[in-house]
């Protein structure tokens, strides 16, 4: 089944070229089915790239998905046109009376800041509180995962000696959990962050389960025991070239940055990187949509 997106969204043409089944709003209104309504709070600076990455994954399932893009009212991104935001995004005030089957809260390149120092932190706290009653399941990514662990469960992030940057191997702690269905015992995933969260604090917390962990990258997938919140500290949604682009930007800025680990062939930045995590990315998103959204959400919200 298709993903339903606004007619003129730039990502639409790229998704069509990739043979992702999409449907515009006009055709979707003619479908006599109950679609899933997914809200995406996109905090990433290059919003159009993140839109494409997430829509590609949401559109590769048997479920029809309606997507609403959300941006913060207390901070306006400088890396996307105001026209794009006005055309395809809305703010919390316009959706707070609605119910959503699922929500994605993305990462943001603000890890060095304390949560309370982030311009839109109070707005984000209000949104995360609202999800308790208005969203069936929330998928949090990277900084969004750290923000959720801090707000909902009191687990703070801490600075790493150097950036966790590259492709790392991960284990699954419990293969019977629905989110991990189809996962290999060991799989790889991208990370790009300067901070981490305590494995010990997560394991001790009565409301959380550490589902996936890496010897090199630390805690990876954390799920709340009520299955309301899923926190993923890395970037499974990244394209093959995303880490290369980040590395190139840091080099151009003159930053002291290591080559991403286990990413370029022979650690040579002039060689073409390969996407070695794609299959598990699709598994994660399809499992989330199926078991934690579709199977759990009410057909008619009260």
TrEMBL record:
The keyword Secreted does not apply. It is found in: Cytoplasm. Its EC number is 2.3.1.31. Its main location: cytoplasm. Keywords: Acyltransferase, Amino-acid biosynthesis, Cytoplasm, Methionine biosynthesis, Transferase. The record marks 111 as: Important for acyl-CoA specificity. It holds the Pfam family HTS. This is Homoserine O-acetyltransferase. It comes from Sporosarcina newyorkensis.
């Amino acid at each position: 089944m298709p993903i339903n997106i606004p007619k003129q969204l730039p990502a639409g043409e790229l998704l069509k070229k990739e043979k992702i089944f999409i449907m515009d709003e006009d055709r979707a209104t003619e479908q006599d089915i109950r679609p899933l309504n997914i809200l995406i709070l996109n905090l990433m600076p290059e919003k159009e790239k993140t839109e494409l990455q997430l829509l590609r994954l949401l559109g590769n399932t048997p479920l029809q998905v309606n997507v609403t893009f959300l941006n913060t009212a207390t901070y306006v991104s400088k890396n996307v046109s105001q026209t794009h935001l006005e055309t395809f995004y809305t703010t919390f005030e316009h959706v707070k009376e609605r119910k959503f089957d699922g929500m994605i809260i993305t990462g943001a390149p603000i890890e060095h800041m304390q949560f309370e120092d982030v311009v839109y932190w109070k707005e984000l706290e209000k949104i995360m509180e609202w999800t308790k009653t208005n969203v069936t399941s929330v998928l949090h990514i990277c900084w969004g995962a750290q923000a959720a662990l801090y707000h909902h469960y009191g687990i703070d992030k801490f600075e790493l000696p150097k950036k966790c940057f590259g492709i790392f191997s991960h284990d699954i702690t419990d293969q019977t959990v629905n989110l991990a269905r189809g996962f290999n015992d060991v799989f790889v995933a991208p990370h790009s962050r300067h901070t981490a969260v305590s494995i010990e604090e997560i394991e001790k917390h009565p409301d959380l389960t550490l589902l996936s962990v890496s010897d090199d990258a630390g805690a990876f997938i954390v799920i709340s025991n009520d299955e309301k919140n899923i926190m993923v500290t890395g970037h499974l949604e990244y394209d093959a070239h995303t880490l290369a682009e980040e590395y190139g930007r840091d080099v151009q800025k003159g930053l002291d940055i290591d080559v991403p680990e286990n990413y370029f062939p022979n650690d040579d930045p002039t060689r073409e990187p390969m996407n070695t995590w794609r299959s598990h990315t699709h598994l994660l998103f399809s499992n989330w949509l199926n078991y934690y959204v579709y199977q759990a959400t009410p057909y008619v919200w009260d």
